[in-house]
Batch of 3 targets.
Target 1
Amino acid sequence: MSALLSVTHVNKVFPRTNRGAGLRAFARLALGRVNTEGFSALTDIDFSVNKGESFALVGENGAGKSTLLKIIAGVLQPTTGSVARTGTVGALLELGAGFHAEYTGRENLKLAAALQGLVGGAFDEKLDEIIAFADIGEHIDAPIKTFSSGMIVRLGFALVTAMKPDLLITDEVLAVGDESFQNKCITWMERYLSDGGTLLLVSHSLYHVKKLTQRAVWLDHGKQRLLGSSHDVAIAYQTFHEEKQSKAKADAMDIDEAMLGQYAVIKLHIESSDSNGLVATGELRSRDGRRPQVAVGIVRADGTPVFGTTSEIDHHPLTEIGPGRFVFKVSFFDWRLLPGSYRLKAHAMDPEGMRVYDTVEREFMVSGKRRELGAVDIRREWT
């Protein structure tokens, strides 16, 4: 395949805003030198998008996605590195970018189309099609400054559908507007891709990333953290967020130190795990010699519970192997967990199964290429 877009070792440094830094940046520019003093928004970004491919950019707010899109669209220039594009480019970046607030929707359409080479009779032929897709009624002849954010997105996207560029760049366009318009956009994108169009999508919705794109790059603090299939990147990015949320929850929890020590999990091993099940073994310590209970559970990386049970619920007493030492082995099977990062948790409980004294966790991954949402694949039948 031929590359429609090539991003080659792109770096972007924004000068500091204080007077001294600004003067130094201007002096370097005047001398033809590269300004490397300031805030580094992008560092060594390198990837390509082939003709007919759908590609996604993911990352947290402030990761550098919008800056990179502006460089790709030609709005900004990289500090070092290069961007090569072939064919026509349609960009939906910042909300309302390229529209004049005082002009009507119709006037803005004509101006924006002219900037992209669609003028005269060619524009007139497509105008009704554009207005119909935007579906904003009589507001088409009202000033843009009276439009809601959703109406502006409708207008911008409607123009893109008429232009049908070789490369379409969208920045969170599906996050604005009502559900019916989002569905209309997705349907158009799928048709655009099936007709050989090329898409560069920025979205926090991992569902849309997996549904609409084939490959993706994850930006983290301006750096390229992962480049690969959309499925693999989405799973890694989702796991990152789940672990981040889990840590935040753990930091906020108050631990009752008085409860620790009476019963404890001293060993926990995952002997085997795959997409069908898991086998785990463990050992508990009992300071008073009484036979403890153990609770075992599976949670997502962010702590969302998937399943849990206890030896008391399942009527399976732990095996004593020595003074105050008790072991267990538990097998989970036919569980149909969806791909993602999970944790097995074992909790040491008192013999009555009433209080938790200790918790130990082990991480494991479930691999696979699935697009369903949630944690488990529930059997279903469509009729």
Target 2
Amino acid sequence: MQILIAGESWVTHSTHIKGFDTFTTCSYEEGVGWLKGALERSGHAVQHMPNHLVSRDFPGTIDELRAYQLVILSDCGSNNLLLHPDTFVHSQATPNRLTAIGDYVQHGGALLMIGGYMSFQGIDGKARYRGTAVEMVLPAILQSSDDRVELPEGQRPQVVAPDHPILQGIIGEWPHFLGYNRFVARDGAEVLVRMGDDPFLAVTHVGRGRSAAFASDCGPHWGPPEYLGWAYHDRFWAQLVAWLTQGS
């Protein structure tokens, strides 16, 4: 199975102030390792495309997307997909990759969006997937503004559909999470796991394809060590991918 993960990377630029003097440091980090490792241990071939390469390299057409059985967007804002350098820098027309993703799912592809500060609507509403072709194929109706729910005290999601194939064999309480993106389940979607009254994991059929929305992170900070070391971590992601790509 060929899987594309877009996002899950960031650059930090820090200013250190020591009285009269200052200096700056920069660092590059990725949060994809836990998810990518779980999928690879399940036998999948995974390509990670970090955020700074998405605008240039993400597939622009449905035919290019068909090289993958599953596309995962995780902490990757919509501007990364909308603003190819040829458009943003050179004012040239380029394909709308949000539309391409929507068409890809409608025609048999699989899409998973994973939560984070630049997923769904995101921090300050800056991820901006509301009203796009990507939102139309997700099992989620997005808020119009910042959709983060911060849970510094930690909260455990509750399984509401334990017999669904994605959740089979996953026994006992889930680990706690430190936050998630709030959305409303779209008509026809199945909510499998909830966080309080909100969907935490929702899935749906879209045309000939399938999609899923996982409201929290696949790594820190919303995904704490208890989740990343959870006995069912790999099994959960493997079974979610198997359901999404069934028939691919």
Target 3
Amino acid sequence: MAEILEKRPLTPITRLYRVDAPLVAKSAQPGQFVIVRVRDGGERIPLTIADYDRDAGTLTIVVQEVGTTTRYLGQLDVGDDILDLVGPLGMPLEIPVKGHIVGIGGGFGAAALLCLMRELRQRGDTTTIINGAREKDLLILNDELAGVCDNLELCTDDGSAGFHGLVTERLAQLIDGDGPGRPDMVIAIGPMLMIRAVTETTRGKDIPTLVSLDPLMIDGTGMCGGCRVTVDNEVKFACVDGPFFDAHQVDFEEAVRRNKMYVRQEGESKNRTACRKLVVGQD
């Protein structure tokens, strides 16, 4: 079990949780994730580690309530226990390139940049974060992200905050030398279509690009095979070989198809619980 020490709303459906998990925090590294189970008989869901404090023994995760299990999690409050929290899982993210590193976060995916960009800045890299969302009220953790990078760029589709346009449009301007300048490396975390668009923006520009394929994960330990992805013509598993991969080697046509495989089942589960109160521990 992991006790919830802090719960903070970030958007109407997005919550930040800081939990007591000393063993996980002791070993956690940027890019890794945990598996959470909220109730007996419930599904196991992978959640990216947003931050960790080894001295305090705490772990920070950000959850968007989009399905049944995340809605169960949303009912828990400070002092409640998450039934199971296992990790850290996945391969730690290694960034051999030094220089100007640009991290791009879409929606709640921006949270995963916290610990990563902090470490890159501490090692001496110039760091830029592009935090994007449809509108300003969906941008999360702006203050925290500004504190771990040299330059924070906000992007909104409707122009309500920061740059008026897509994260890829602002990235293209940086590549052309605008603002803090051309990136030496790009890291993208967020919805599948966004990271695919980032990949195409940097393709052919001699800019190494890494993307997180965590949207593909179901089981998180390699047992279910649901996160299979083809990278450089080889079959990989996002949960055990990733979640980060060389973006320009990923077969995104396949990845997008696989990301939609369980949409019907997820919708059916959500509909079954839409008309009644969810109670943790009950069906």
